[in-house]
Input
Amino acid sequence: MRRFIVFSSLAVVAAASVQVSVPASAAAPRVLIVDGHGWGHGRGMGQYGARALAESGTRWFRILPRYYADIRLQRQSTKASIRVLLTRANAVVLKGNAKSAIRAGRTLLASSRSGGALYRISHRGTGFVIDVAARLSGPWRRVASSRAATIRFTAAHHVGFVGASTTRWYRGAITLSPSGSGLVVVDTLPLEQYVAEVVPREMPAAWPIDALRAQAVAARTYAQRVSDVARANHKAYDICGNDACQVFGGYGRTRRGSFAVVESYRSNVAVQSTAGWIMTWKGKAILAEYSSSTGGYTAAGDLPYLKPRPDPWDIASPLHSWSETVDVAQIQARWPAAGSIRSVRLTGRDGRGDFGGRAEWIVISGSRGTIYVAASAFQHAFDLPSDWFRLLGSHGQYRFTFNMSYGDHNAAVHFLQERLRSLGVYPKNAPLSSYFGPITRAALQQYQRAQHISPSGFLGPLTRARLNASAS
Output
């Protein structure tokens, strides 16, 4: 999910405005270099920062106040439930592992004690239609229909959501409601079970236990906040089940006949040991946003407890610093109203952190006029890790601004290979790529020996400085 914007030896970046001109010559470089920091929106807790704090011995209840201002930790009942939107579809196929039952209110529409039957549920006309089969390929036969407003599918342990190759198993009960010509499918389950299924999808379960605990409290708080808002507005569900909210994939899955539990023992311990704990501000659950990597400074949110804060613990994140490239032709294709691109200019920053902080606006000037694009829109258009970036000019040599080592895969590696080739140490017949493999390491070692640097094959600060000096 990365790309790049390469430009030049113009690594001088003004905090307010930097312009990159695109030469008219067809032979001139048509690529921009983007150097940046962080991964995600940067608001609230940085997960890599939480990891580093936990590794240093910081407890979860001291990690969270580093990222959320003026909050209080409060314990609530562990008996709350939550309604998670699983999908909107024309029809779904469900399976119970034992004692399956489909009801409209108190009326039993269909059931199976063995759990082997598949139920295809669709909404037609003014009601639901239920078909049953022993296998996904059929044959299907009609067993019930209902004009109820909603129907509910339950089983003894878990309900299976059957796909072409994978069945996902969910705790709780599945509620189906009509939506247009299709269905809205919602899983209702205890909030603590929901959090147990979210945590290992949002943070690696092998990370330190206090990082997992901080994640559990953040996930629980976020879910409680959006649930409170949804119910106050009489919504049919509380939260979505994808990364637009929090990633929720159920208890387990069956693929090619093999069942696997998706939850983790370690993350379950983190959830259970923080059961009921949430963060509050003025007595209410906060919108506990979080992201993978803040880049060293959290971004400002619209709420008083989402204040920007330094995050020096993010330094170990693999995307604390990054570089990507974007072809000028891609910019022109994305915003054709500008015409033939003449310059790309960044204007405005939030003033926090390296090179003036997060970008605000991109000004694209072309033969047909000038277009202003929010930096976040530019970020999402080219799948950049964050909106904290700078544009470097295309008329000189690429400036190496972060360390690289064997196994790295990004656009900056390509520029390292080009530089090493120009210096006569990268084989002329070796392909240029974005992968830091054995050829790149050997060439870098050869360069380091010639420069009387320890031949580590690692692009560290000293080697970067020497390579940048060679481009001056």
The two ends are 32 Å apart (CA to CA). The chain has a mean pLDDT of 88. Residues 91-180 form one domain.
